[in-house]
Design goal:
mainly alpha, MetI-like fold
């Protein structure tokens, strides 16, 4: 018993730094935010308990539009990143001359500091001297300058394109690593049987990549759902709120309007949504690992 007890104590000692980190960095701020969401905290000195009032203010027509916009923005951004990243990884995995150079060239969007990359895209979207508007005019697609960030629809898609540009390298490298882990014997057997490249990709590569694709989709979804820098630097949630997502709305409420209680309630709602996404992810991955009976 003494040996078992000493082993148990030693195990807890090893776990203590991680437990302290989770408690101080994760658990305490989360609990404090949850408590703050039931108050009218602001710049005033006194804070009153308001119960569910902050949550009742959230569920109005405007915020439902914000929630829907956030899901649409996340869906298209993650989907495009996964499609481009997967096929990009397939091309980088092919035996072509200069493959190492092409792999290096996929890194700049990920290496360049995010703020610098976003400012670069902001200049490109500019209607007066932006590169995209100038090219469209030169090719005759438009008659005059196009200010992409001045209109709701174009600004919405402009932020998605920028997010895709920043996120594709990570997806590409992750999927490339997953493709390189596929046993080569399967490809050789299929090639011996006369299977073409596209057939091998559909029947061997894609099925074996599904677990990795699910994991990468989840990581990208969490990152995209909480994406703040891209939208804030490009549009600040405008024009007319057409690019305001949940994280932008939370920031405007808590920091912009100094309504910390209402902002905390919105942050709790974001945490709930992401927790649901994580639960769905664990259920899906458990099926691939055999942890759940079908």
């Amino acid at each position: 018993m003494s040996v078992q007890r000493s082993t148990l104590i030693f195990a807890w000692i090893l776990l203590l730094p991680a437990l302290l980190y989770v408690t101080v960095i994760v658990a305490y701020p989360l609990v404090d935010t949850f408590i703050l969401s039931f108050t009218d905290a602001s710049l005033k000195r006194t804070t009153n308990w308001v119960g569910w009032a902050n949550y009742s203010k959230i569920f109005n027509d405007t915020f439902f539009q914000v929630i829907l916009r956030t899901f649409i923005w996340t869906f298209f951004s993650v989907s495009i990143k996964m499609i481009i990243g997967t096929f990009g990884a397939a091309m980088l995995n092919a035996a072509v001359p200069g493959r190492a150079l092409f792999r290096i060239l996929t890194m700049p969007p990920w290496i360049v500091p995010m703020a610098i990359g976003i400012f670069m895209w902001g200049w490109m979207y500019n209607g007066q001297f932006g590169m995209i508007s100038g090219m469209l005019q030169r090719m005759g697609f438009v008659d005059g300058p196009v200010a992409f960030l001045a209109y709701g629809n174009t600004a919405f898609w402009a932020t998605i394109i920028t997010d895709v540009w920043i996120g594709v390298p990570m997806v590409t490298l992750y999927m490339l690593a997953a493709m390189q882990s596929v046993p080569q014997d399967l490809y050789e057997a299929a090639w011996t049987d006369g299977a073409g490249r596209w057939y091998r990709f559909r029947r061997i590569t894609l099925p074996l990549l599904v677990p990795s694709m699910v994991t990468m989709s989840m990581l990208s979804l969490i990152s995209t759902f909480n994406s703040f820098d891209i939208i804030w630097i490009l549009t600040r949630g405008g024009p007319n709120g057409e690019t305001t997502t949940m994280i932008i709305d939370t920031y405007k409420t808590a920091i912009g309007s100094n309504k910390y209680g209402e902002g905390a309630a919105r942050a709790v709602l974001i945490c709930i949504f992401l927790s649901i996404f994580c639960l769905c992810y664990f259920r899906i991955t458990s099926r691939f690992t055999g942890g759940e009976k079908r």
